[in-house]
Amino acid sequence: MTTSQVRRDGGHIAYEVHGEGPLVVLSHGMGENRASYRHLVPLLVAAGHRVASVDVRGHGESSVGWPTYAPAEVGADLLAVVRDIDAGPAVLVGSSSSAPAVVFAATDAPELVSGIVQVGAFVGQPKLNPLVRMAMWSVLHSPRLFGMFHKTLFPVHRPADDAAYRRSMVANLREPGRMAAMRGVIVPVEPHWTARAPQVRQPVLVLMGTKDPDFPDPGAEARAARRLFRTAEARMIEESGHYPHADRPQPMANELLGFLAVCTGA
To answer: What's the rounded mean pLDDT across residues 202-216?
Structure first.
């Protein structure tokens, strides 16, 4: 594995590239790193795609200490990766806290983006009671507690290497500045991605696990996201939690490959 870096104003973004063909850029969720997609990447490469998996600013091997972790800036980082590879336009895939970023990227540089995929996107701010809010405060300030929370997001299936991945993730979060970055990617900012969604002109795919514990009704959340776009589809991954690319990589790849064929004209 070779890690590449692209310089940005305020630091660098780390990413790795595998395969040849139309470009797909993968962006992970809060607290994770690009290895979140370790089971999906080989499936996309085998299907004839060039795949770039990115460490969101402040995560993985990307630098810390950014002045902002807003979705618009994360989206700009993804565009910088596309430009650095010089293989666009690309389909951008954003999971969880990265789902808003792909919307901003698609509207800021439509010539570089052929389609976007939102995985486990939050349409509104979760409404938490005081007890849950206090528990989440603790989770967002402790790598160990975040690791325990992360485990709950796999309610049905869990990758065979999940424990090893989680240990590595928690070790990364113990590095200086990592937890601040993790909190930074979920700070509410304006404009919210939902205000930008109607401006997206590219094809959009909304994916959601049927057992995603982050939502009272995952299907309703997926449909709510779909309705925000001019042209979008919402698909559910059966028996999957918050990270379909990790717990159900083959069904996720099946949905994604059909969408990629539409975006690339294959």
So the answer is: 96
Which distant-in-sequence residues (6+ apart) come within 8 Å of 236 by Cβ? 207, 208, 209, 210, 218, 219, 222
Phi/psi region, residue 48 (left: phi>0; alpha: psi -120 to 50; beta: rest), is left
Tell me the C-alpha to C-alpha distance, in Å, between residue 60 and each of 56, 164, 177, 264: 7, 15, 11, 30
Give the separation between CA 220 and CA 157, rounded to whole angstroms. 22
Sheet of 23-27, strands arranged across: 4-8, 11-18, 50-54, 23-27, 90-95, 113-119, 204-209, 232-237
* Alpha-carbon dihedral sign for residues 96, 59, 75, 252: negative
| Contacts of 234 by beta carbon, 8 Å cutoff, 6+ apart | 205, 206, 207, 208, 222, 223, 225, 226
Residue whose tokens read 């200086």? 176
Residue 198: asked if its preceding bond is cis (omega within 30°), the reply is: no
Q: Tell me: pLDDT of 127 over 80.
A: no
Residue range 93-121, pLDDT digits in tens: 999 999 999 999 999 999 999 999 999 99
- And the tokens for 223? 């449909």
Q: Which residues contact 7 (CB under 8 A, 6 or more apart)?
A: none
Provide the CB-side half-sphere exposure for 253 (13 A, CA). Answer: 19
Sign of the Cα pseudo-torsion (89, 109, 111, 103, in order): positive
What DSSP state is assigned to residue 189?
-
Return all residues near 193 (Cβ < 8 A) that are at least 6 apart: 71, 99, 100, 103, 104
Q: What is the chain's mean pLDDT, rounded?
A: 94
Pseudo-torsion of CA 168, 90, 106, 127, nearest 10°?
Answer: -30
